[in-house]
Amino acid sequence: MKSDMPPRTRGGYTSTAPRRRPTGSERRRRVQLREVEPEHPRHDRDETEEVLEGAPGGPIDRCILRSFHKHVAAKIWLGEDRAPLKLVNHGAKLQLWDLDVERSRIYETVQRSGLAPLISCSHRVASRPMLSAFCERWQPETTTFHLPFGEMTITLDDVASILHIPITGSMISFSQPLRVDDANALLVELLGTTDVEASRETEQCRSPSVRLQWLRENFSTITDVSSDDDIDFATRAFLLHLVGCTLFADKSATSVGVVYLELFRDLSMVGSYAWGAACLAFMYRQLTTATRFEVRQLGGYLTLLQAWIYEHFPEMFSSPDMAYIESRPRALRWRPHVIPDSLQSLRERLDRLQISDVCWEPYVDHRAEHPFPDIAWFSGCIKCGLVVEPYHPERVLRQFGHIQTIPPRPFAPPRPDRSILLDQYWERWTDHVLIDHSRGRRCHYSGESVAEYMAWYDRISHRIVQPPHLRSGFTTDARSSLPSHTASTSDSRNARALRLLRHVISGGRQQSGDYFWGALNEAHSILAGSDETSASHSTPSPAPASHSTPSPATRPFFCPPTFVYPPPASVDPPPAAVDPHPSSPVAPPAPAAGPTASTTVYVRSKRKKKT
Predict the structure, then answer these.
(1) Residue 157: its pLDDT value, please?
(2) Which of 85, 294, 324, 499 fits as disulfide partner to 298, beta carbons 3.0 to 4.6 Å?
(3) Residue 171 in 3-state DSSP?
(4) What is the pLDDT of residue 504?
(5) What is the spatial distance between Cα 89 and Cα 323, in angstroms, rounded to a whole number?
(6) Would you call 611 exposed, middle or buried from its count of C-beta atoms within 10 A (0-12, 13-18, 19+)?
(7) Angle in degrees, CA 117, 121, 127, rounded to 5
(8) DSSP assigned state of 487
(9) DSSP string for residues in 426-485
């Protein structure tokens, strides 16, 4: 009996269309695939998972870093090099639009939005070699920096402490990309421009964007005496200019997307967004894009990235501001400067990093003014519009003061079109934080990890960026061939002195002059080697128990130094007063045993020529 059901195809779906005969090219391609297919497939792994070969220099197992063959670090290991990235930094442009007393109404609205700290904390200088060296260690799959001792990343706690902007609230979401016509309509409605002006500006940008300079020229002259509508237009323009220069600085370097203008439609609701989470997602995506070898530019809020490096690696890169107070954003704690080292030199310095070189919890003194936010334990996806990035605090437990364990595999972010589900997931963030079991135990010492962590990390990571055959002449192997007093003793003295001075500098101006004098005296003794000389040629007397302190060599780098001030030097008593009119002649002092240089010169100067 003939069935009335339509024929069934290979995929299980039904179709009434007649079956198409394969072409000759398709038949040849199928034959080639059958020839290369192995007769006996492996059964020691899941057949649905592809096993990728290891890369030169690591990772040995590419189960996590699956796209490493496209990474700039893979090209560097094979001998190809990339110049330092061009940086998109608008720190100087923020000063061109000043909210003075005549624009107090605009500033009050900006302050209520939670974005006012961005005006003052943006760095005007960014170091290209330093940021490029860290960008080469960013891995898109884990959204972390892969360093020789483990992973680190910028967390929500870092964003809140460095920038002082809100990290809780509604997620910034866009349903679809903005078209040029819609951008023109937004400019007319929310900024009060004409259709001709809006069209001319988007045509010049060749995208649904406006130039930062165009915003300043058209709206920076509006003051408090203007109409309410004009003040609202100028406020929206300033906020758009602010986020375009800071949080969402893209690689166009001159413009900002009009899509963010929709966030400022209701000026009373601007402070309800999680600006810090959106900034972090945008920064993650910019770092991911810059890991590709053909990319030559880095966008995002570089002040956040640079201040994060200063906070966690203070002994290598930072230059603190002595006038900083803890009530201000931590980005103002540092004086940005250009690192004089080359990119290759910084690669080698990062390759030699150790756990003791990292400040794992830099905000201990800042907690009184800015407590730890519980949302930093959120494990899931963060997003900025159509940009969705995973956020993995379980991979950087040491930055939270916990022992690092082997983390689970990172999850791939869902599609941006599922924005409603992501928003609901974020709104219930208290249900998606790491539980106490996943956080693990508190560290006994900074940077602690479980015993098997480094063996696992060595297999899945690319720990060293600069290949050994391309390193500079003065490498670690070259140091070992030098005499011991040059290679080890000098380096130890320099490290001890620098560590000591770093603590003094980071202490600020509140310290006494005796404290500074003691620190400089001890640093001078360390560099001169007098402390080791005296220790080797004399037997030190046992110190009292109440005054016993660890030596600078054994003292942890994060502990404040304790100085033992030497007794004041003996001063000769002043000479006795001489009466200018003595009553009796005073005998001249007896001459010295031998003629001195000054006496000889004096005698010769008084000798007359013979005529």
Answers:
(1) 98
(2) 85
(3) coil
(4) 65
(5) 24
(6) exposed
(7) 150
(8) I
(9) HHTGGGGBPPHHHH-PBPSSTT-B-TTHHHHHHHH-----S-GGGS-SS-HHHHHHS-HI
